[in-house]
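Okay, any thoughts on this one?
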Amino acid sequence: MKLKDFSEDELKARQSELKAVHDQFKDARLSLDLTRGKPSAEQLDLSNDLDGILGGFFLLQDGTDVRNYGGILGIPEARQLGADVLSLQPSQVMVGGNSSLALMYNLIAHMNPVWQGQAQELNSKVKFICLVPGYDRHFTICESFDIEMINVSFLPSGPDMETIEELMVRDPMIKGIWCVPKYSNPTGHSYDDNTVKRFAELGKLAGDNFRIMWDNAYVAHHLTDKPARLRDLMALAREAGTQDTVVMFASTSKITFAGAGVSFLGTSEKNLKAFEKFLVPQIIGFDKVNQLRHVRFLKDLGNLAAHMHKHRTLLHPKFEMVQDKLQTAVGGKEIAEWTSPDGGYFISLDTLPGIASVVVELAASAGVKLTPAGATYPYGLDPENKNIRVAPTYPSLEDLEKALDVFVVCLELASLNHLLAQ
């Protein structure tokens, strides 16, 4: 039953009940964390065979010793693996360290002097389109370069392409767009075929040196038997003559060891050559030993899929628990809407407008840490103060259940307080 249909006396009675339960949680002195989408220890254990997998044999097929200097673009075998993951050619791919964010940051650093020069000529600022709710670390990169961020929302098919296209036609200083095209963080969107095709055409509308930052972080992270299908952006961009606008990213951070994985950057050969030149003064090469470890462990897409099925077996019950708890506790009360993703690491929940930060504060006072309200928006400012990113992957099932019990009480209590204050 909708909460707004209750009488004021009924709402106050329910408010008193929830306050008492909330006080009990505070007395329990819980310490539970749902802030970030980290793999659990059990997920990390799936890759323990990485340790010692080389068995003292450090030579590549061509005889190169990976323990030595050189090879800034990565070992050929790892470039092939990255190409398979990103649906590119090995000549279009470089392999980095454990953080794809480092590659993203350096790509922006590489392009920014050119963008800033044009901004000065036009007496304007460099701007990026940011899809919201989105990934906070993308926004942090923009802030560090003083790049202005423009919010664009999602439709069921993916980003609101009509708005994006209109913005780009009007403003040549829009130099990039952040995307997580498959199982988006945190909404779970996977872009439909027409959306990807329209992305491939954006370079025809954009000013010079525009870049699509295609962060395919969850390319292999399925939660169902029917994984989302993502159309090949680079193939479409080649057909459109816009391949230089596309920069793709992926990593093994949530596949093997989060702190000791490898990352991939894929783009046109022209772009890759320029980016390599930019990197040369700062690095001789990334960890080729770790690249070889990953090639020996993951081998190919078939083995990667089998490995990710093991992850899914651990993750699916957690995502199911979130759905069950939310539906049981607040379903039908019209105080929240949430996503039911087919993959990725997050569930996006919208509260009543204006109370997301209150829910987070109530949960924190009861010992449950959530991602700060507003984190899924540029500058940490959710204009409606309603989005909360739920990250269920790291806790044990037992701890997740406790945290969700707290969360749903805080969600309903904040909603009741809001309704009674009107």
Q: What stands out?
A: The first strand starts at residue 32 and ends at 34. The domain at 58-298 is CATH 3.40.640.10 (Aspartate Aminotransferase; domain 2).
